[in-house]
Amino acid sequence: MENYQDTEGILDRLLSVAGLKRDVQLAALLGVSPQAVSQARKKDRVPESWLIRMAARYHLPIDWLLHGESEAEPARFPEQTKRLGRVAAPSVAPAGGEHLEVALIPLVAASLSAGGGSLESGGDVLDYFAFRQNWLLGKGNPDNMVLMKVHGDSMEPAICHGDMVLIDQGKTRLFGHAIYAVGVNEEIYVKQVETLPGNHLLLRSLNERYAPIEVDLRGDMADSVRIIGKVLWWCREA
Predict the structure, then answer these.
(1) Hey, what domains does the chain have and what are their CATH numbers?
(2) Considering only CA atoms, which of 166, 191, 194, 185 is closest in space to residue 226?
(3) What would the pLDDT profile of 33-59 be if each residue is shown by its tens digit?
């Protein structure tokens, strides 16, 4: 999405769907500075991420946000396709006007610890991020996937502090040397998980400064340990 013919109209529609009247309110909703919205008006370019975020939040077609019209103006996505649906992505659409199928994966409020364990285990959705649907389907069921932020350096150099990881909560079967999100009591870890004889789990860090954590699944610990899901992918901002 390099340029738009109706940037003012797009921003007005973003304000309208959120029930807002001022750019500063829109900036707060998007999590950007008021100057960023002012620059979008001046440069005649609305970031694609803003459209995806607002389309996901209010379950609207991106076509309508872009042009003010669509086949179902301003049709909202059905309840069952709030996160997985046919959403326009003009910047990567092939010739002929075909729409790219994307899945909108939620970033949840839980924080994964790559150190001593995270106590933040809330599941509130903070945002949505778009992934190519075909890519996700090749890895699992997008309906089971969430994004979480990592805190700590125990999984460096692979996964660093502040990275975002994609977790498939439908993949809880353990495979050696794979990385999982694991809950132990109220703490959540991201670790390599290995099974040991005697009904034990070993939570292994990639950073050699951190010793492995051995978990005894017998007795009281049986109900305290849960495999949240397999880590499929991670990324970091430049």
Answers:
(1) 7-82 (1.10.260.40), 104-235 (2.10.109.10)
(2) 185
(3) 888 888 888 888 888 888 888 887 777
